[in-house]
Design goal:
The chain is an alpha+beta fold and 388 residues long. The protein has four domains: 3-97; 121-211, no CATH class; 217-303, Jelly Rolls, CATH 2.60.120.1440; 310-385, Phage tail protein beta-alpha-beta fold (3-Layer(bab) Sandwich), CATH 3.55.50. Helices cover 23% and strands 33% of the residues. It has eight helices and 23 strands. The protein has a 15-stranded mixed β-sheet that branches. A hairpin with a 2-residue loop joins strand 3 and strand 4 (152-156). The chain is elongated, with a radius of gyration of 24 Å. It starts with a helix and ends with a strand. 29% of the residues are buried. Residues 178-273 form the FecR protein domain. Residues 315-383 form the Protein FecR C-terminal domain. It holds the Pfam family FecR_C. GO terms for molecular function: sigma factor antagonist activity. InterPro entries: FecR, FecR_C, Ferrdict_sens_TM.
Length: 388
């Protein structure tokens, strides 16, 4: 091991143990910038970053936090554009070095210019369809009573969410409402039984104005999170196509977009039973049932709850995601059309980016890996393997 590599090991371990000085930290970034593309870069550092459960040098430290910290360090150089270029060069070196992964937050330093149009999330509107088929554009309604269906009132609150109040003689189990979100929008509502629901972009939920005394049934498409009101004697059932999820009182997420090739049900709290035909399985908190489209057998896996619920927290969060998965999420949020030229890159990506950012920022960070680039034409994006 030469002197530079020894120094890199020494400084990196000091950085991770939070004992590094400001001067040593500057030296560390300079060494990474210099050595990142070298064939003899210390394999122990590369392996520790890419295989966190087995790392020795970086015990207890998440590689995401390392890069996050690097990108958030205060800059003391006098010329802003030079600072930006310097720090993004270091970030790019880290991306190439550590397993083709990326991490981007709102506080990170951004590139000085964008080669892609700054497409913001789509600005279409959320629609409530009443039991008589009348559409109500929720974005256009002020807070207060926005509809009356018999003696049931539909209330829009000051935070934009929706709830229902009903009279003592209400009996509307056969009358349904539907809330639909377009691309680029999310919505929160409270069902007549008190169950709280969050809809992701391009999603919908159909529910009765009053649930029956025997069962609470709703139908969904897209992606929906439920915090189910507890009623031990009245089970709650969610249908998506011919799959059902049965619960009593719990919180869970269902992702059932048709273009994803599967339905994923993730349990956060409580217990649920997932059913398809004659097959079924029970979930415990932190587990996920994956049902391939057209399949009948569930695969049970451990869920990355942070990744599953990132949309609800206003983030894109990717863990070992392929480029097509990332672009499907981007298409739903930014209302863009995505196509591919040539073979898809086989690399996996890891990252976080706030949903309120322009899509150009997401594309630029992906391009920094050197394994994919993009051509943009209005709301059309072409994905091309390899560096530009």
């Amino acid at each position: 091991m030469d002197n530079q590599q020894e120094r890199l090991h020494f400084l990196f371990n000091k950085y991770l143990s939070d004992t590094i000085t400001a001067g040593e930290q500057e030296e560390l970034w300079a060494l990474i910038d210099t050595l990142a593309t070298a064939d003899d870069f210390p394999e122990s550092i590369r392996a520790a970053w890419n295989d966190p459960p087995k790392r020795d040098v970086f015990t207890g430290v998440d590689s995401v936090h390392i890069l996050d910290s690097i990108l958030r360090q205060p800059k003391k150089r006098p010329v802003a554009t030079l600072i930006s270029k310097h720090w993004w060069k270091i970030a790019a070196s880290l991306l190439m070095l550590f397993g083709i992964r990326f991490f981007f937050q709102s506080r990170a330093v951004k590139p000085t210019a964008s080669r892609h149009a700054p497409t913001l999330p789509a600005q279409k509107k959320v629609v409530l369809t009443l039991s008589n088929g009348e559409p109500v554009v929720l974005d256009d309604k002020a807070a207060g009573t926005i509809a009356r269906q018999g003696d049931i009132l539909v209330i829009k609150h000051t935070d934009g969410s929706l709830s229902y109040t009903r009279g003592s003689n209400s009996s509307s189990a056969d009358s349904y409402n539907t809330v639909s979100t377009p691309t680029g929008s999310q919505y929160h509502l409270e069902l007549p039984d008190g169950t709280k629901v969050w809809l992701n972009a391009a999603s919908s939920i159909k529910y009765p104005l009053a649930f029956s005394p025997q069962k609470r049934n709703v139908e969904i498409s897209g992606e929906v999170f439920f915090d189910v009101a507890q009623q031990a004697a009245v089970p709650f059932e969610v249908s998506s196509g011919d799959m059902q999820v049965q619960v009593l009182g719990t919180s869970f997420n269902i992702m059932a977009y048709k273009d994803e090739g599967c339905i994923k049900t993730t349990l956060i709290t409580g217990m649920v039973k997932v059913i398809k035909g004659t097959g079924s399985c029970q979930l415990r908190p932190g587990t996920q049932a994956v049902l391939p489209s057209g399949g009948n057998n569930f695969q049970l896996v451990k869920a990355d709850v942070q990744e599953v619920l990132a949309w609800k927290e206003g983030e894109f969060r990717f863990r070992d995601a392929d480029i097509s998965s990332i672009m499907r999420q981007a298409a739903r949020w930014y209302d863009v059309e995505v196509s591919y030229q040539g073979p898809l890159p086989s690399n996996k990506f890891y990252g976080v980016i706030p949903r309120q950012h322009n899509i150009s920022e997401l594309l630029e960070v992906l391009e920094m890996t050197g394994h994919v680039h993009f051509r943009t034409m209005g709301r059309k994006i072409i994905v091309i393997s390899g560096a530009k």
